[in-house]
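Changelog entry

Holo records now carry the ligand SMILES as an explicit input line rather than a separate metadata file. Below, a converted record for fe (ii) ion, shown in the new format.
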Amino acid sequence: MTSTRELTPLDRFLTDTQRALDTVFGAPAAVRANPSADIAQIELDDNERRHAAGLMRVNHVGEVCAQALYCGQAAVARDAATRAHLLEAAQEEADHLAWCADRLRELDSRPSLLNPLWYAGSFAIGAVAGLRGDGWNLGFVVETERQVEAHIDEHLESLPAADARSRAILEVMKADEARHADNAEAAGARVLPPPVPSLMAAASKLMKTVAYRL
Ligand SMILES: [Fe+2]
Ligand SMILES: [Fe+2]
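Structure line, unchanged by the conversion:
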């Protein structure tokens, strides 16, 4: 359903809050089918299952952070086209979020207990980045997506050989993240100056280390 009515700041605040609660505590539904749906479930031993669950929890947190970053950036975006661009990417990230949650359940595991914290921190970072202007906003998307693409590659290497279902999900996510970065580049992203990319990499390394366990 679309509305031509301009959203008021209160509308936007309520939408943002609803989205945050859905992401952290709810189970957002995917629009697209889960890429692992047709792939046979192969029994993993305990160590393999634990490792796969740790990696998929990291990926799930990554998607929680993506939702929060994009919503934080969209909340302060000056240009309606940039805002639409951010919210459109966030919709695809919602598919990723749902697929990772499905896989965590199949692996008898759970999302990170710290998701409220990851969400709040990422929303704040997104809003700060967004306040620098729309070129920065898009530059931030490019850098985030490229870093996520690189860590998905690491996970594809590290997943147990038998875990074809996690791998199928990550392959589609990787292709989507690459497209998000390309789209943001085409929409006029500026290249982020040092030390921003390395600070982002350090923050995501910390997140990955903690989320693998918690
Ligand atoms: Fe994603
Ligand atoms: Fe993405």
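Spot-checked after migration. Residues 46-76 form the longest helix (31 residues). Residues 66, 89, 93, 145, 176-177, 180 surround fe (ii) ion (ligand 2) (CB under 6 Å).
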